Every structure is written in structure tokens, then in C-alpha cells.
Amino acid sequence: MRRKPGALVPLELAICVCAIELRRQEVGEFHGYEMARRLGDAGDQKLLTAYGTLYRALSRLEQMGMLESRWEDPEIPARENRPGRRLYTLTAAGEAAVRDAARRETEEAAAAGWAPGKRPGRKAAPA
Amino acid sequence: MTPLALAIGLVRAWTHAYTWRLEPAVRDRRRAEIESELWEFENDPERGDHPAAHMLVRLLSGIPDDLFWRSEHLSHRRTRLGTGVRIAAWTMATVIVFAALWILPLMSTGTLPPLPDRPRVVMKAPAPPPPPPCAPAGYPQFTPCVP
């Protein structure tokens, strides 16, 4: 997908918004499957985001500096007898990107006389 | 093999295919993330109905992004085998698409059609050979024999 430099596609924005929601619930870090579940719940979708789509978006967000990631302490998965999780954290740049997107949405809505998030012909952007 | 195990195997095979010959750190990270994701899904009590079909749809719809992701990482590290790898990846993707298209309808079949009636098998033995002609007097005889 062609994009302006630094601009977020809807999925990337949704990931950042979910990460903010998780932080509000005092969950600072999340792993890929958890994010897929959250995105599914937020969009009221039965199908989770495709593997390739989700991990490519996470990878791009990390490259753009909006997410940071690390492998969890290997003792935890060894104790729980499961594969290790890659844990992601939203950075300040990610939070700023969400704020910018929300501001832009509000400005566009005000300029065009739409209610924010109700732009015609477009799926509602996350608040 | 259960449909879920088959779907997990396909996701794993595809992940190995599209990460083949990438930088080891990039390759291992993606494989480990997918492995973790598969485990989480398999062990999620709220994963819903038809987990294998769900998994296959997630796999199929993500294939274009997997290939784009691979090409992004390959552009940093062009190899002489680049074209070959691309062809192999597309071939593998095609195989997986066809395998999934074949498997999905099999999994969606709710009830099997009734079995046909039991076939009637009639065994017919060939007629016994005619008795041999009788031997001349003084020789041992087959019984019965035709004089």
C-alpha cells in the first residue's frame, strides 16, 4: 500500500489505539495474539487479523519507532511449557501518532461538517 | 491427523517457506512469533468454532502481506537466488491456496451422505472338471472315471 511517509494505515492506527486501551487497563506490554484478539473484539469481527497482515503491521510500527519489542524472560515460557512471546510496548511516538490522527479526523470532520468518526464512505476511525 | 493439526502444519510450512534464506535474526524472529501465536490460539478456550477453518482463512488472507514483508527484507539483502526464491515462494503460496481450497470444503461438510446398500456378493465356483477316462485293466483307477 502506498502511503505518505510517517502516515499510519488503519490497521496500524488500530493497533496503537488498542495499545493505549491496554495501557489504561494497566497492561503495558502485549503479544501478537493478544493484539489480534483485541482488534477482533474492537471491530466486532469473528475472524482475527491475518497472520501476515498483523505481523507486517507490527514490524512496520516498530521500524517507525511507534512500538518497541522484546522477547519475554525465557524462564516464563519454560515454566509454562509454551513458546516464548514477543512483547510489544507503545512508545511516546506511537501515542503522539494516535493523538495526531484523532486531531486530523476532528479537523476534517469540522471542516466538512461531519460528526467525528462518521465520515461518509469510510469506516469509523478509532477515537 | 485432525483438521486443526493439519492447519497448524500448513501455517508452519508456509512460514518456513516465506522466511527461507532471510537474515537468520529476521527469519527466526518471525518463525518464533508465529509459533507462539499458533500455541496461543490452540490453547485459547475462547477460540470459537471451526478453529482449523479460521486458521486457514487467516493464513490465506495474509499471504500477500507475507510476500510483501519478505520482499521488503530481501531488498536489503539481494542474493543471486532472489528470483529462484521468489518463484519458490509463489509456488508454495499457490500450493497452499489449492490445499486450503481442497481442505475447507471437506471441513465444512456437516453430515456425511448415507452409505449405499450393502453389495450382494455371489460366489460362483467353476464346474468341476469331467472325470478322466478309465485306465486299462491292471492299472490303478481314478474314481470316478469314464469307461
Task: Describe the structure in brief.
The complex is a heterodimer of chains A (127) and B (147). Chain A is mainly alpha-helical.
Description:
The complex is a heterodimer of chains A (127) and B (147). With 127 residues, chain A is mainly alpha-helical. Chain A has one domain (10-112): Arc Repressor Mutant, subunit A (Orthogonal Bundle). Chain A is 52% helix and 8% strand. Chain A has five helices and two strands; from the N terminus they run H-H-H-E-H-E-H. In chain A, strands 1-2 form a two-stranded antiparallel sheet. The longest helix of chain A is centred in the last third of the chain and has 21 residues, at 92-112. Chain B has 147 residues and is mostly helical. Chain B has one domain (3-108). Chain B is built from four helices and no strands. The longest helix of chain B is centred in the middle third of the chain and has 27 residues, at 82-108. The relative contact order of chain B is 0.13. The mean pLDDT of chain B is 84. The interface between A and B is medium-sized, with 24 and 30 residues.
What structural class do the secondary elements of chain A suggest? mainly alpha
**Large-scale geometry of chain A:** elongated
Number of helices of chain B: 4
Number of separate strands of chain B? 0
Q: Biggest sheet of chain B: strands, sense, closure?
A: none
Question: How is the secondary structure organized here?
Answer:
The complex is a heterodimer of chains A (127) and B (147).
Chain A: H1 10-24, H2 32-42, H3 51-63, E1 67-71, H4 75-80, E2 86-90, H5 92-112
Chain B: H1 3-18, H2 24-42, H3 51-74, H4 82-108
Helix pairs in contact in B: 1-2, 1-3, 1-4, 3-4
List keywords for this structure.
heterodimer; A: 127 residues; mainly alpha; Arc Repressor Mutant, subunit A; two-stranded antiparallel sheet; 5 helices; 2 strands; 52% helix; B: 147 residues; 4 helices; 59% helix; elongated
